[in-house]
Amino acid sequence: MNLFLDSCVVIGQHINLDPQNKLVTEFLKENNLTTYNDATTCKKVKNEVLHRSMKILKHYVNEGRITEEQKVTIYGAISNYLNKIVKMVNYSDFTNQSFNRLYYSLLDDLTDNDADIEIFSNFILWTINHNTVPVNPTFLTTDANDYDRFDTEGNSIALKSTYECLKKYDEEFKNLPRLVILKSEANNKCYDCIDFINK
């Protein structure tokens, strides 16, 4: 499984006090995965994580839950991870027809959260353009608000919208993508393009 990490996953992985930490840690352990070997993300996630993680860490310092020194250490580990360890892509280019079509297709069908749509569009283009075809390319997130949306047949709206958009332009996935939403109150949600392609 090749993971493409959403911002919340990177933050949850590195900040032990973050509510997402347990979800991310347990998922990786249960699936015998690590985000240090074969994980990818995009520049938009990097920028979000660097900004949001500093705000979160400052909040924990102000609450007395971590020290200033711990804040610097944790932020340094996050920065090192994003700059030197995780693979980074950047397909965010509105002059690129594929990105443009995907972005606006998702904007119409999924959510009006520009950042999430940009990140998910990067995931899809990585799935198509990856130099070596990813094995089970999987978008990993804890953001149920924007991604846990499905049609009356139980299909993921994000994946179905993407598939329908690409099909119009004769573009194909090299390997069908998956969407995994880590949730605390119920079983993790896993959507797969194959579910509705075969219908």
Question: What does this protein look like?
Answer:
Helix content is 53%, strand content 11%. By secondary structure, it is α/β, with parallel strands linked by helices. The chain has one domain (3-41, 89-197). A six-stranded mixed sheet has the order 3-2-1-4-5-6, with helices on both faces. Strand 5 (178-181) and strand 6 (189-192) form a beta hairpin. The longest helix is centred in the first third of the chain and has 20 residues, at 43-62. The mean pLDDT is 88.
Using brief descriptors, characterize the structure shown.
alpha/beta, 53% helix, six-stranded mixed sheet, 199 residues, globular
Concise structural overview:
Helices cover 53% and strands 11% of the residues. The chain has 199 residues and is of the alpha/beta class.
Q: Strand pairing plus helix content: what structural class?
A: alpha/beta
Q: Regions with pLDDT < 50 over 5+ consecutive residues?
A: none
**Order of SSEs, N→C?**
EHHEHHEHHEHHEEH
The percent range for helix content is 40-55%
With helices defined by DSSP (H or I, 4 residues minimum), what is the helix count?
A: 9
- Terminal-residue CA separation: 24 Å
- Rg value: 17 Å
Count of the domains: 1
Number of strands: 6
Shape summary:
globular
Average per-residue pLDDT, rounded, comes to: 88
Side by side, the strands of the main sheet go 3-2-1-4-5-6
Largest sheet: 6 strands, mixed
Strand content: 5-15%
